[in-house]
Amino acid sequence: MIFRETDLMGAFVIEPEKIEDERGFFARTWCRREFEEHGLESGLEQCNISFNKMKGTLRGMHYQAAPHEEVKLVRCTRGSIFDVIIDLRPSSSTYGRHFGVVLSEDERNMLYIPGGFAHGFQALVDSTEVFYQMAASYHPESARGVRWDDPAFGVEWPFTDRRLISERDRNWPDFTGH
Question: Is the pTM here over 0.70, yes or no?
Answer without folding.
Answer: yes
